[in-house]
Write a structure and sequence with these properties.
single chain, 150 residues, mainly alpha
């Protein structure tokens, strides 16, 4: 009887630990989604003000023309939205690949990814889902560059 009680108690503890871990992960994902949505809003605001646009685009675009800065911010917002959809499970990998290929098929898209790649890669860390997202864009950029040079 004592063994049965101990097993039952161990089962309850295991279920409670799993519940806590799932809640924690859900909370992290909710925070990530909120941050990404806020980032898109900031990019939208920056795109309407040339001074904010230069600030948001960073030092690599300090000497760029206003249109180039705005294109960069627009593409950054698009990639951020795709990342949010990808992280939330709303965007399957074949669709992500299609979006990345379309976005990076233009010279402007490839220039954007070449500039943004390093900064975005720095945020990947141990996140396997984000690693796949980043790899999809790297592959699409490489394939698009190869197609453009032929």
């Amino acid at each position: 009887m004592l063994i049965l009680f101990a097993l039952l108690l161990a089962g309850v503890v295991a279920v409670l630990l799993m519940y806590v871990m799932q809640r924690r992960e859900h909370h992290r994902e909710t925070l990530r989604a909120t941050v990404l949505a806020a980032q898109v809003e900031l990019l939208k605001t920056a795109a309407t003000d040339p001074a904010l646009a230069r600030l948001a685009a960073g030092p690599q675009l300090a000497a760029a023309e206003s249109d180039e800065v705005r294109r960069h911010l627009f593409l950054d917002a698009q990639v951020t939205v795709l990342e949010l959809q990808w992280r939330s499970g709303a965007l399957p990998e074949p669709h992500l690949r299609a979006h990345a290929a379309a976005m990076l098929s233009s010279e402007a898209g490839r220039r954007y990814w070449q500039r943004a790649r390093t900064v975005r890669a720095a945020t990947v860390g141990e996140d396997s889902k984000l690693r796949v997202f980043h790899q999809v864009f790297d592959t699409a950029c490489t394939e698009s560059q190869a197609a453009a040079s032929h």
